[in-house]
Specification:
The chain has ten helices and 17 strands. The chain has an eight-stranded mixed sheet with strand order 3-9-2-1-12-16-17-15, sandwiched between helices. Strands 8-4-10-11 form a four-stranded mixed sheet. The radius of gyration is 19 Å and the shape is globular. It has two domains: about 170 residues, Carbamate kinase, CATH 3.40.1160; about 80 residues, no CATH class. By secondary structure, it is an alpha/beta fold.
């Protein structure tokens, strides 16, 4: 039984319809793909993003903010969305397993991700959250929210960006490991986990969002996963993405990917953290990482779709 950590983007849960019903429907469609790992005999560990959800929740909090009902801070909103999305996944996966006659427990865990208090990311917000805005709306948004940092996100519009420090430790990883060893499917580190720092023996929440791919990579390393799979809506890794000469990769050595990262060839708000997280996992474990399309899960399991990143190049392996 291979231990597979699967990382899902927040946009795999929410598209244009932010209602709970629409998001639960999307989660149901997602787990219908993920259950193929269970049918394949793998031990599945699910992680997910929450960028759209936590951004929308922050807007709701700010709209209702008052002295009697103060808005919750970003770390608490992260915990709230971690709980709600985990609830949706837990129920949807259990229902999908029952349809297929599979008896297996599923558990969502509110996870805290330890970061460094002096991480330079706190001075350089880069993590997109919330809805996309057209350029024509930016002036009005800045007038209403002068403290917001806005950034164009991979050609899809502008979004608010917040600090995204690197994960140092997953506080609950021993508990996650115990649950995995018991054969339970955990939903962990939602939205990258709640960012916290250790101070005087306490865990203190920070106003930030952890990148879910880096968090997934860290979890995969800590629980000795056999493979990290990052599922996206654009498929695998491309060189020259969006250009006439774009090339999709299927099998590539980690050193080649590192060279293209060094050449600044991947979009910072989308593919860059995915390839960096995959590289971190491969370098730390020597095991494979895969980046691919959620809709191609069956083919990814067979090894015929997605970008497979190895510790050595294909030529050396063969």
């Amino acid at each position: 039984m291979a231990k597979i950590v699967v990382a899902l983007g927040g946009n795999a849960i929410l598209s244009k319809d932010a209602s709970a019903a629409a998001q639960r429907k999307a989660v149901g469609e997602t787990v219908a793909q993920l259950v193929h790992f269970v049918e394949n005999g793998d031990q599945l560990i699910i992680t997910h993003g929450n960028g759209p959800q936590v951004g929308n929740l922050l807007l709701q909090q700010m709209t209702a903010d008052s002295e009697d009902n103060p808005a919750m801070p970003l770390d608490t909103c992260g915990a709230m969305t971690q709980g709600s999305i985990g609830y949706w996944f837990q129920n949807a996966m259990k229902e999908e397993l029952a349809k297929r006659g599979i008896e297996k427990d599923v558990m969502a865990i509110v996870t805290q991700t330890v970061v460094k208090e002096d991480d330079p990311a706190f001075e350089n917000p880069t993590k997109p959250i919330g809805p996309f805005y057209p350029e024509s709306k930016i002036r009005d948004i800045k007038a209403t929210h002068p403290d917001w940092e806005m950034m164009e996100d991979a050609g899809r519009g502008y979004r608010r960006v917040v600090p995204s420090p690197k994960p140092v430790e997953i506080n609950e990883y021993n508990a996650i490991k115990t649950i995995v060893d018991a054969g339970i499917i955990p939903i962990v580190s939602g939205g990258g986990g709640i960012p916290v720092v250790r101070r005087n023996g306490k865990l203190i929440g920070k106003e930030a969002v952890i990148d879910k791919d880096f968090s997934a990579s860290k979890i995969a390393q800590l629980i000795d996963a056999d493979k990290l799979i990052i599922l996206t809506s654009v498929g695998g890794v491309f060189y020259n993405f969006g250009k006439p000469d774009q090339v999709e990769l299927h099998d590539v050595g980690v050193s080649e990917i590192e060279q293209h990262i060094a050449n600044d060839e991947f979009a910072k708000g989308s593919m860059l953290p995915k390839v960096q997280a995959a590289v971190d996992f491969v370098n730390a474990t020597g095991n494979q990482a895969v980046i691919g399309d959620l809709e191609d899960v069956e083919q990814i399991i067979k090894g015929t779709e997605g970008t497979i990143i190895h510790s050595v190049s294909d030529a050396v392996r063969n």
